[in-house]
Amino acid sequence: MDSVSTPRFTLSPNPSPVSPERRAEVLANPGFGKIFTDHMALIRYTEGQGWHDPVIRAYAPITLDPAAAVLHYAQEIFEGMKAYRTAQGGISLFRPDANARRFRKSAERMAMAQLPEDLFVEAVCQLVKMDRDWVPARPDESLYIRPFMIASEAFLGVKPASEYLFMVIASPVGAYFGEQAVSVWVSEYCRAAPGGTGEAKCGGNYAASLMAQKEAKGHGCAQVLFLDAVERRWIEEMGGMNVFFVLDDGSLVTPPLTGTILRGITRDSILRIARDGGLTVREEPYAIDQMYADAASGRLREVFACGTAAVISPIGRFRGKQGEVVIGDGISIGPVTEKLRTNLIAIQRGNAPDPYGWVHKVI
C-alpha cells in the first residue's frame, strides 16, 4: 500500500478527557510509562482486505478473544519512540521513518502483516496532534510513544495469523535513569541465538530477559548485559539497549550487528554523530574477559548504554561471576559520553542544526 492508497484516519475525540488540572499534576512528575494520554490509534488488518478502519479514539481497554493467536503463539511486535517539545514551541519526532522501517522488518521476521511505513508514521503523528497537550516541556522529559501490533485472529492452529491489530499509545515520561552511572550485571542467561529473533523488536525477547533482569536487581544492579549464546564470551547488548565502550585513545567500540542484536536507532544516530565529530568508531566483537582486562589496566575509560528510553546512560561498574570492575570513578558521566549525549539531545529537541534530516516536525 503506497501513500496514495493510505486510508484516512477517523478522528473520534475522547468525550471524557483528563482535566487540565489533573494533566498538570501528571506532567509535574510523570515517572515512566504509568500514565497514558487521552487517545490511542487503532488500525485493523484482515487477510484479503488489508489494513482498514484507521481511527484515533479514546484510550480504553480492548476486547480480545481468548483464542487470539497472540495469547498462544506470541505473534507480537512493538516500537519505542518519543515526541519532543522544541525550544520554538513546536512538537517533533526523531527519525520516525527508521522506527517504521524497523517495525516492518520485525513484522517480516515474525510472519506478520507488514504495515506500510507511511501509515505507521501517519498513525503516530495523528495521535501526537490529538494529544499535543500531553507533551512535556521540561528538559529530559518527553512523550513516550508505543506503537505495537498483535495477532488477533481467534484460531488455535499453529500458523501465521490472518488478522492483526495495530495500535499506538503514549505516555508522558521523565528520565529513564538518573544522572549518575548505573551498575550492570553480566548475565549467564542468553537473550538471543543465531537464526533467532534477536534482531526483531518482539515481546518474546524481552520476556526472555526478565529473569536475568530480576537476577541483576538481586545483585544491586539496574541493568543486565548479555553475552553471545554460542561461546558465552562476546558482549552483545543490554536488556533492551545497545552498549558502547570508550577506550583511552578516544575511540569507540560497539558490538556488530550480526542478527542477534537489535538495530538500535539511537545506536545508529550515535555512530553518525561520533564519526562526523572526528571520533574513530569500530563495530567489532569485544570479549567480556577483554573488557575486564581493559577496565583493570585503564585502557577502558567510559561505557554507556543507549536506547530510546534511556537516550545515553553512563555505566559505572559491571558485576558478574568474574567479579566487579569499576569504570572511571564509578559514578560520573565521562567526557566523551557527555558530549555525545549533549549533541544528540540538542538535535532531538531542535536546539542544534539537524544536518541529517532526522527531525520530523508534527506541529
Number of helices: 8
Global mean pLDDT: 95
- Give the SSE order as H and E letters: EHEEHEEEHHEEEHEEEEHEHEEEHE
| Main β-sheet description | 9 strands, mixed
CATH architecture tag of the largest domain: 2-Layer Sandwich
The share of residues in extended strands comes to: 25-35%
CATH class of the largest domain: Alpha Beta
Category from helices, strands and their pairing: alpha+beta
Count of the domains = 2
CATH-assigned fold name of the largest domain = D-amino Acid Aminotransferase, Chain A, domain 1
The helix fraction, in percent, is 25-40%
How widely separated are the two ends?
Answer: 26 Å
Give Rg in angstroms: 21 Å
The total strand number stands at 18
The name of the CATH superfamily of the largest domain reads Aminotransferase class 4, branched-chain amino acid transferase, N-terminal domain
